[in-house]
Amino acid sequence: MTGYNSILATAKHKLNWRTMRDVARALELEKTFIDALTSASGSQQLLLYRFKLHEDDKGKIRELHVALGHLRQFLVRLNKKLSMVKLPEYMHGSICGRSDLTHARVHYSRKFVTTCDIRDFFPSITTRMVKGAFRALGCTPAVATDLSTIVTVNGFLPHGFNTSSAIANLVLLPTAERVNSLANSRNLAFSCYLDDMAISSDFDHGNLEPILSTIFGSAQLYLKDSKFRKYGPMQEKVITGVRVDSGRNVPTHFLEKVRDSIANIQSVPSIYEMSRLEGQVARVIQLNRGAGKQLRKRLKLVLLYQ
Questions:
Q1: Contacts of 249 (CB under 8 A, 6+ apart)
Q2: pLDDT at 270 over 90
Q3: Nearest one of 18, 6, 25 to 134, comparing CA atoms
Q4: Could you give the CA distance from residue 210 to residue 219 in angstroms, rounded to a whole number?
Q5: Fewest C-beta atoms under 10 Å: which of 36, 106, 173, 268?
Q6: Residue 105: burial class (beta carbons within 10 Å; 0-12, 13-18, 19+)
Q7: What's the predicted TM-score (pTM) here?
Q8: 8, pLDDT greater than 60
Q9: How far is CA 217 from CA 209, 222, 288, in A?
Q10: How many CA atoms lie within 13 A of 10 on its CB side?
Q11: Which strands form 189-193's sheet, in the order they lie side by side?
Q12: Per-residue model confidence as pLDDT tens digits over 127-147
């Protein structure tokens, strides 16, 4: 559990739940309420959540588990407790005051950047891994077992549960600590946004793929071969959708994609298409205000003549 040292450094960040009565008291819920969640099985579990398809800003369709009723109430309250855990500065995903932009900022204007991400991150996180995280937070084996059962589905961490991102950070922490130690030993900058990793420097830091694959593989987390990239001095560098080679900017391919989408409007877009376009323009404004404003004007002009 050495990877959890930063969590355990201060007692106020530990849960220290010895029994499920402690959990009920901390979350201000009736114990019978929590007992019903821990004992749910089979068809009863299916009543605790619903499925929802979600398209992200890259157009990827993801199946979400949306918690309902008592389960949602429990997860919301548990997530508030988990959000109090102090995580290292190099972690930026789903942490108050940090974002994909703060993650990218670590690597602004660096000459060499390596990026990679974990394959099937949430489905790779098992109930056993989650139990280990709760144990590290001071929970007894029995409590850690019950909590890990509630926050996972079919033995794995689901997309969509209120607690999933916070728990993913906790499970990832020991491995991220090893990567951060590696980066520090080589005078490299490291940061991560959930499963998206970035390492940078102003000198050629070589091929990091073999050692990073070994580090993550030892934790039964595996990197996507297709997403492992190393950028050199003359290349456009992109981290979590943010261009970083000359400060914060919008990636060329994304800017061109939005421009083409606006130029190809042949009729009044549907509400869904319009919402997606406006979201893409807003993202461009966030990264490059001038370019985004021009796109917004162009979109208004195109719609005027439909």
A1: 242, 243, 287, 288
A2: no
A3: 18
A4: 15
A5: 268
A6: middle
A7: 0.90
A8: no
A9: 12, 5, 37
A10: 6
A11: 189-193, 196-201, 112-117, 229-231
A12: 999 999 999 999 999 999 999
Instruction: Read off the tokens for 85.
Output: 């855990």
Report the number of secondary-structure helices (H) and strands (E) in the chain: 14, 8
Task: For the chain, give the percent of residues with pLDDT over 90.
Answer: 76
pLDDT at position 200, please? 98
Q: What is the pLDDT of residue 11?
A: 37
133: closest CA among 95, 98, 78, 174? Answer: 174
Residue 241, amino acid: G
Given this model, what pLDDT does residue 41 score?
65
Query: Which residue type sits at 82?
Result: L
Residue 93 contacts residue 193 (beta carbons within 8 Å) = yes
Tokens 């993650």 — which residue?
103
Range 204-219 average pLDDT: 96
User: 3-state class of 67 per DSSP?
Assistant: strand
Q: Which of 165, 75, 78, 155 is nearest to 121 (CA)?
A: 165
